[in-house]
Amino acid sequence: MALIGDLLRKIRSAFKKAGVDQEEAEYLLAHILGISRAEVHLRAREHLPAELLPTLEMALKRRLTREPLAYIFGEVEFYGRPFRVGPGVLIPRPETEILVETVIGLCPEREPFLLDLGTGSGVIGITLALERQALVVAIDKSLVALSYAQANLLRYRLKNRVFLVASDWCQALRPQRVFQVVVSNPPYVGPEEWPHLAPEIKDFEPQEALVAREEGLSAIKKVIACARKHLAPGGFLVCEIGARQADKVLALAQQAGLLEGRIIPDLAGNPRILVARQRREDSH
Fold first, then answer.
1. CA 24, CA 201: separation in Å to the nearest integer?
2. Is 164 inside any structural domain?
3. 178 and 255 assigned to the same domain
4. What domain range includes position 190?
5. Which NCBIfam families match (predicted)?
6. pLDDT above 60 (res 268)
7. Do 152 and 247 share a structural domain?
């Protein structure tokens, strides 16, 4: 039987050779043991239960192929809560939590009516339903992604607050349906960037959830058009963007007739969130 501390060192060494972040060794052991990362070190001189060794070996083998931990575990933490994810759906990133925080800041009142475009696993809409009791229409064209979103909304008992729709952007919405906020984390990676991304991304995550034509702007254009069409007067668009797209998306929002365009940076200081507002006198 192996000591947990010895296993930690061996996994860190294997990760280093494979080009994987060594810090993930703690996450891997913590998940297998069902404990926190801090407890991994506190229990370094304890033996790993023999029945857990096959699970650990399989998880380690998969991670060394560069498969993301979130797919191996079948879940990821977002805004302090676990969400189901897996092959075929985008893994939520920490910077997307800023998207959620921005919407919360714009909606001090309870029960806002929101449109979540390209919902993926549903983390944005579900988190806003939990944090602000929002009523959410969550749209995605991927049935695989919607299956994860369905599992997540059932997990949090939100089937009466989050409504999933299979649609290519806002095509399935009635023209008269309007929302206080349109929120989206659309594909914004340019096709030319895709081959240069980390293996965890380009070899495992769904390309259609990450890559957009026109230097990564085509999906953002559709989101802006949907916002212009379906925002209530004075409503807000909150959209995640690429770090080098700020000037272009501000111009696109202005050209579409949205007002008060501004960019919010992520924790690294990179431009990350577009915020713009619908005209107060109309919604067309």
1. 16
2. yes
3. yes
4. 78-277
5. hemK_fam (TIGR00536), RF_mod_PrmC (TIGR03534)
6. yes
7. yes
Binding-site members are: 118-122, 140, 169, 185-188
Same domain? 56 vs 158: no
Same domain, 106 and 212: yes
Q: How far apart are the first and last CA of the chain?
A: 68
Given the structure tokens 């891997």, which residue do they identify?
28
Sequence ranges of the binding site for S-adenosyl-L-methionine: 118-122, 140, 169, 185
pLDDT digits (tens, 9 = 90+) for 51-108: 999 999 999 999 999 999 999 999 999 999 999 999 999 999 999 999 999 999 998 8
**Nearest one of 81, 103, 269, 283 to 184, comparing CA atoms:** 103
Q: What pTM was estimated for this model as a whole?
A: 0.93
pLDDT (mean) for 11-29 = 96
Last residue of a domain, one of 44, 65, 86: 65
Annotated binding site for substrate: 185-188
Q: What is the DSSP string of 177-217?
A: --EEEEEE----B-TTTGGGS-HHHHTTS-GGGTB-HHHHT
* Residue 160 resides in a domain: yes
CB count in 10 Å sphere of residue 26: 18
State the Cα–Cα distance between residues 169 and 173, nearest whole angstrom.
9
Structure token digits, residue 88: 């075929």
Domain match, 98 and 9 both? no
Q: What is the pLDDT of residues 114-159, one digit of tens each?
A: 999 999 999 999 999 999 999 999 999 999 999 999 999 999 999 9
Residues 25 and 106 in one domain: no
Q: Which two tokens stand for residue 4?
A: 């947990």
Q: In this structure, is residue 70 part of a structural domain?
A: no
Number of domains forming the structure of the chain: 2
Domain boundary among 43, 65, 87: 65
